[in-house]
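Weekly puzzle thread! Below is a chain. First person to post its structure in token form gets bragging rights.
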Amino acid sequence: MVKVYGVKLLDDLRFLEMRGLFHACLPKEVCDAASKFKFIAGKQRKVLGELLLRAIVFRDYGIPSGDLLIDTTEKGKPYLASHPHIHFNISHSGHWVVIAFSLAKVGVDVEKIRNVNLGIAQRFYSEEEKLQLFSLPTNKQIDYFFNLWTLKESFLKAIGTGLTLPLKSFTIRQADGGFCLSDNDDYSPAILKQIKIEKNYKLSVCSFEDEIAKSFTAFYINDLLEILNS
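Winning reply:
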């Protein structure tokens, strides 16, 4: 089963106060990479994402943080080079960092809902998706825009192509109260699901397994530190 976990960013001051505790649980290269971000939010996303990843791999798979080797594919998708049978994908937006874990290819995307120029859909959505979107009442279009955006991103992240596969080259369609990938035999096993996370956020998962968890598990930062220090 695909499982999804999340952690919220901290107040900036609290993050800075606890930074020493975080760095004690992480490799030096991760801390160095985090320090290069200009804004504290960027530093947090890097640090908390790494803490969440390492804590869950230790808790669920029994693999200590020090045994992990994380690398990226040619397309830039992170993977566990030391344990390639464990698949994961990470996403962040607003004050959330989320990670999906699976024993098969998986992608996850979280987005904070905000006002956007719906003209973006003309560039990135298929003809069928645009018809779906603009047939809705105006007050429902932003919400549906982010349904499609997160589902499409989660699919691209699952297959690991990045934007080398254009967003408008495939179609996400509503079906049986959910969503599915339409008319693409190459990726027909793909399963798409949306999971409730918080008001004004969308969280979508794409899996090549048979089942995706119905909900996600949120951790407090102290939970992650306790796991890693156990």
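Puzzle host: Confirmed. Bonus trivia for everyone else. The first helix runs from residue 12 to 24.
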